[in-house]
Amino acid sequence: MTLMTSTMSEQVPATLIMLGVFSSIGCIGNTIVIVIYSTKKDRLTSTVFILALAMVDSFACICLIPLTMYIESVEWRIESEFLCKFYYVINNSFIPFSSLLISCIAFDRYFAICHPFSQIITVSRAKHIIVAMLFLALLLGGVSSLTIVLQRDSSLNSTEPEYECTETRMLNNTTKAQLIIFYIVQGSQFSSFVLCILSVVILYILIFRSVLIVSSAD
C-alpha cells in the first residue's frame, strides 16, 4: 500500500469508472462547443473566453483525466520522475486555469449586460487576459512540481525496488522549505477556486438585479 492511497485503495475502481464517464462526456461536449463557436462569424469577447475554456477542458478530458486514471490504477507507483512531476504540473496548472476562465466569463457577461457601452473588455484584451492567466497557471504548476518526489517504497517485500510518487509533506525528512512551498501551492489553488465561486455568484446576482431593474422600469 502506498502513502498516497493508503486510505483510498477501495475507492479506486469506482473512481476510475467515474473518471472514464466524465472524460467521455467531456470530450464529446467540448468538441461540439469548439466546432460551433469556432465557426461563428462574430468575434465577441464571450466567444473568445468560451473557446478557451472548451479547449482547456478538452485537454483535461484527453490528457489529464486518462493520466489520472493510470496513476490511480497503479496506486501512484511510478518509476518515471518526469511523469510524476509532469502530472502535477498539468494538474495544478489547468484546473486553476479553468476556474479563472469561468471567472472571466462572469466578468465579461457583467460588463456586457450592466455596462454595455463601456467596452472595458475587448477581444484584444480578452486574448491578453487569457495569455496572462495561462502564464500564471503554468507558473503555479511549475512550482507545484517541487512538492512531489519519487520515493522508494520500502514497505514492499520485493526483489526489485519499487517507487511511488509522493508529496513532500508526507516524507519523514520533510524540510521547512518544502512545507512552505507545499502550503503556498495549496493556498494558491484554494484561492483560485474561492475567487471563481465568489465572482460568479456575486456578478450573476448583480446581473440579475440589473435585469430586474430594467424590467420594472418598462
Automatic annotation (TrEMBL):
Segments crossing the lipid bilayer: 12-36, 48-71, 86-107, 128-150, 180-207
GO MF assignments: G protein-coupled receptor activity
Domain G-protein coupled receptors family 1 profile: 29-218
Entry-linked CDD domains: 7tm_classA_rhodopsin-like (cd00637)
Name under which the protein is recorded: G_PROTEIN_RECEP_F1_2 domain-containing protein
Annotated family: Belongs to the G-protein coupled receptor 1 family.
Keywords from the named record: G-protein coupled receptor, Membrane, Receptor, Transducer, Transmembrane, Transmembrane helix
Record carries keyword Membrane: yes
InterPro entries (UniProt xref): GPCR_Rhodpsn, GPCR_Rhodpsn_7TM
Gene Ontology cellular component list: plasma membrane
PROSITE patterns per record: G_PROTEIN_RECEP_F1_1 (PS00237), G_PROTEIN_RECEP_F1_2 (PS50262)
Pfam families: 7tm_1 (PF00001)
Keyword presence, DNA-binding: no
Membrane topology: Multi-pass membrane protein
Record localization: Membrane
